[in-house]
Write a structure and sequence with these properties.
The protein has 8 helices and 7 strands, in the order E-H-E-H-E-H-E-H-E-H-E-H-H-H-E. The termini are far apart. The protein is globular, with a radius of gyration of 18 Å. By secondary structure, it is of the alpha/beta class. Strand 2, helix 2 and strand 3 form a beta-alpha-beta unit.
Length: 278
């Protein structure tokens, strides 16, 4: 069904073809929606970068853009966006306006935690530095506020728009695998979702929700988390319906991104029922 026909949805957080954000983007298109995508890349507001940092940003954006064009089509618009920089957010909004684009919603699928490194034991909370803590908070939680504010102040989010954030059970509970610092950031993200749902519902009739998905190793981001592969096996065995799959997340996400309905402030679990376990 074309539930998202004539709707334009911003998808953030695609890093590779296995990204959960990519699954959601495909479903939005399947339901008739137009997708535009933003990815981390070098902008005019990145100053004093080392050669290594410049190379990282350029290669990250190149990989993002190549993946989007390959999986979603050459006609899919892509934009560089660093959500930690207000200037980058404003430039992104200006670029949308210049192309006459307004949005019916967006997916927040952005997270970062420098205490998580592939093959390295995740730091205990006591060992997390202030910079690591606030870095994770800035990218993984506060960016929902800063990006939403930028889009609203630029009059780019239409009335009855929908905002959806991706979270994880580790925001509420000590997860089967180490999640620690990023779990704290995801808890903040979920609290922001609830506050924005109240504020934006009242002021703009905009819905804001979040989904917690099953442990997933099909993306570069997931594969970097220590113990996640074992968690996938454990949760698949102990979930009433087995682990949810990316397409399950995509279906629920597309539903919550529709303009119709009055579902807001929800933290949905799409995890095969694992969250009901004691």
């Amino acid at each position: 069904m074309q539930y998202l026909k004539e709707k334009t949805i911003l998808i953030t957080g695609i890093t590779d073809e296995g990204s959960l954000a990519m699954s959601i983007a495909r479903q939005v298109r399947e339901e008739g929606g137009t997708v535009i995508c933003s990815g981390l890349g070098r902008t005019a507001h990145h100053s004093g970068l080392s050669d290594r940092a410049r190379d990282f940003l350029d290669k990250t954006y190149e990989a993002f853009e190549t993946t989007v064009k390959k999986e979603l089509g050459d006609d899919t618009l892509t934009f560089p966006l660093d959500v930690t920089l207000d200037g980058s957010i404003q430039d992104f909004c200006d670029a949308l306006k210049a192309k006459g684009i307004s949005l019916n919603g967006f997916l927040h699928s952005i997270a970062m935690d420098k205490t998580i490194k592939a093959g390295v034991v995740i730091k205990s909370i006591l060992d997390v530095t202030k910079d690591e803590f606030f870095g994770a908070m800035d990218v993984s939680a506060y960016s929902l506020v800063s990006l939403t504010r930028g889009l609203i102040h630029s009059d780019l989010l239409k009335k009855n728009s929908s905002i959806l954030a991706l979270s994880y059970l580790g925001a509420e509970k000590v997860a089967y695998h180490p999640y620690k610092n990023i779990g704290v950031a995801k808890a903040a993200l979920e609290r922001i979702v609830v506050e924005l749902a109240h504020e934006l519902g009242t002021s703009h009739q905009i819905k804001v929700n979040a989904i917690r998905f099953s442990p997933y190793t099909g993306s570069k981001a997931g594969s970097a988390i220590q113990g996640l592969a074992e968690a996938v096996e454990f949760c698949d065995k102990h979930s009433p319906l087995g682990n949810a799959q990316p397409e399950d997340l995509a279906y629920e996400s597309a539903y919550l991104l529709r303009s119709e309905g009055r579902v807001t402030g929800e933290i949905r679990n799409v995890d095969g029922g694992y969250h009901i376990r004691g």
